[in-house]
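Hey L., structure's done. Input below.
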Amino acid sequence: MDKSIMIFLHGGGVSSWMWQEQVEILKDTYECFAPDLIGHGTRAKEQIFSMNESTREVISWIKENANGRQVILIGFSLGAQIAVDVLSREPDIVDIAVINSALVMPLPWLHFMVRPLLPLTYPLLKKDWFIQLQAEKMGLSQHVLHHYAAESKHLQKKTLLTMFQENLHYKLPDTFQQAKARILVTVGEKEKGIMKRSAKKITYSHPKATGFIVPGIGHTFTFEKKELFTEMIKCFIEERALPVELREIQ
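Output:
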């Protein structure tokens, strides 16, 4: 039997390296694909980020490579928004989806307030002390710090501005409920209220979605609790009981 395809979509300001450990564990069972999104990683200088174009690329890749196999789509943060977009645009293309910390309730006022500050804070992304501070906040281990540092230093200002704008204006499409996939939604217990409300909205907007809160963490599930994250994925795919640490969204 041909392996299922497992696609990992990274968050904003990082790239495919964030999934290294998951891919290493799961590659014997699944055909894993972790692309660099537009404006990130190996594509930092290619062109500025575009949510619409990123979604189109993922859809195109699936259509070219799935060949009737089961498709599992896993997204974190910005990548989770793109995963939601893929499900909403092509309801029949994904079989299983894991949506981690996706903002789907627009915050245009926040963009209006913060946008003027972004050009001023952008130079900090090149400073080693700031990179170290952010890495510690995200729960990154030392062996991936060089990846994060390189990512931060190569991120283009236009990509940062566009990414921030699209992230804060994204809202859950009405067509999301038509996706055929089984969907697992997660959010950190310490994340901001808008993120928890977004997770609840995604969960309640789809007949085959289930949502869980990850205790003790913020926007860092895939970094801080890798073993739990990987075990959760396996359980959900195999339709087994999820790890007891997770609390179902009510």
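The CA atoms of residues 17 and 119 lie 26 Å apart. The chain has one domain: 5-105+171-248.

-- N.
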